[in-house]
TrEMBL record:
This is Uridylate kinase. Inhibited by UTP. GO terms for molecular function: ATP binding; UMP kinase activity. UMP binds at residues 51, 71, 133-140. The gene is pyrH. It catalyses: UMP + ATP = UDP + ADP. It is an enzyme of class 2 (transferase). One of its GO terms (biological process) is UDP biosynthetic process. Belongs to the UMP kinase family. ATP binds at residues 10-13, 52, 56, 160, 166, 169. It is found in: Cytoplasm. Homohexamer.
Amino acid sequence: MSKYKRILLKLSGEALATNSNTIDPDTLNQVVNIIKSALAKKVEVGIVVGGGNIFRGAALAEVGMNRVTGDHMGMLATVINALAISDACKRVGIDALVMSGFPIGGGVCDPVDHNKAKQALTEGKVVIFSAGTGSPCFTTDTGAVLRGIEIQADIVFKATKVDGVYTADPTKDPSATRYKTLSFNEAIEKNLQIMDTAAFALCREHNLDICVFSMLENPNTLSDILDGKPSGTIVSQ
Ligand code: UDP
């Protein structure tokens, strides 16, 4: 029995990509297996997915695009990723529901509704939140915390390429060490660049812990953490 009953899993868009594929089918299946293992432990799973494998507003603005338009494109990219995850879930018999932070018609997905989301979660469905916060100039990390608060998640799991938060970038500085725990204030003051300040501030205000961990390096990591085996870095009050 996991100590967490309901989790919000934040996946970056890049977690679905490889060098040759924007959305890689094998990587997608790996992600689905990880979701499945959490559901098998009777843990309710909400997901927020990013869009960085397709578009990021800041990068589009750098090449001259209007920032708000770029952010709209970035948020639409997250909808594409959410649909891909939902489809991959359904193919293996996991019921999934995609919700969007801004209205999208045509039966593509539902608007975010925290009550409907919570109901779906209690029925064992995976709820995939797309379009971040629904507003430009935010990130999907902030969107993840926001949705985590809305669905009353016990914790936000942020999957990254490295297995936690380090004192410096471990790919550049071999003396960097991993924090097992950190406070929100420390994370903000040290400007550790794992999540933006808005996301940390929201977590701090609502006392919602974040666990930063590496997902694809070892596909059992999330399952192990849910079983009570510590891994990654916990950022808390
Ligand atoms: N975005 C936005 N508002 C939000 C969330 C995302 O405008 O609330 C846009 C922004 O342009 C961002 C892009 O969507 O760069 C993709 O999200 P993000 O960069 O957070 O994706 P990730 O890095 O997690 O793949």
